[in-house]
Design brief:
74% helix; mainly alpha
Length: 243
């Protein structure tokens, strides 16, 4: 498993398009946060930490789409045949792909969160509290979960374009359609990646019906369990399909 995971990491680092996509996804957080903060989007009650997380949704979408493209392109470019010849055990190959996507997304998100905090601190006028920088761990967890779902969707759809549409809808629809969820709204919206980040940093105002009933920690656990469930579905589909 470890050698397959390493091979998947090397593949991303050596393929120019994959590498560029990962870098762009990592830059999404600090650049979007800089844009929001520099345009006056940071309220008096907000902290530097919450300001650094304002671009988290763009980062989540970017990592999910990137992971979906990486996984889906194996089918569109027919390189999945080569991958299976190299690692014939499908569960190992699939697990390595998902783990590699999550590793790169989490590492990139951690670096992006640090850069975002430094950039926001540099451009924000004095008077704002630092807040709780370790709360940016929520960005790392959410990015890893988004990448896992993206990779699984890429395998399920076997299409780069189709998988991008699915993952974007999965990330944005819970909040967009919140009013249609009724009593399930806090459970579904509260465990969505973007809302999980908001609950961690506790900076932006969050409506009571969007907050997960069990708190930020349980919201993160639920988010990760959902990502695991989607990854399991992808694994089952991958195990039963021909290359």
């Amino acid at each position: 498993m470890r050698s397959a995971w390493t091979a998947e990491l090397v593949k991303v680092l050596t393929v120019r398009g994959f590498r560029a996509g990962a870098v762009l996804a990592g830059l999404a957080l600090p650049l979007t946060s800089l844009l929001v903060v520099s345009s006056g989007g940071l309220g008096d009650a907000d902290t530097l930490t919450s300001g650094a997380a304002t671009g988290s949704m763009s980062s989540l979408v970017a990592y999910a789409a990137w992971a979906a493209v990486v996984a889906g392109s194996e089918y569109t470019q027919r390189t999945i045949v080569v991958s299976l010849a190299t690692v014939p055990r499908r569960p190992v190959l699939y697990g390595a792909k998902v783990a590699a996507a999550a590793t790169i997304a989490a590492a990139g998100a951690a670096a992006g969160a640090v850069v975002s905090l430094l950039v926001v601190a540099a451009v924000t006028p004095s008077g704002h509290r630092l807040g709780d920088p370790p709360a940016l761990l929520g960005v790392v967890l959410a990015s890893g979960a988004a990448a896992v779902v993206g990779a699984a969707i890429g395998v399920l759809t076997r299409s780069s374009t189709g998988s991008i549409a699915v993952v974007i809808a999965a990330l944005l629809l819970p909040r967009a359609a919140a009013g249609l969820l009724g009593g399930l709204q806090p459970w579904i919206v509260g465990a969505s990646p973007g809302t999980v980040v908001t609950q961690f940093v506790q900076g932006a105002q969050l409506a009571a019906d969007h907050a997960y009933p069990g708190g930020a920690a349980l919201a993160a656990v639920t988010m990760l369990l959902v990502a695991l469930a989607v990854a399991t579905l992808g694994g089952l589909a991958f195990a039963r399909r021909d290359g």
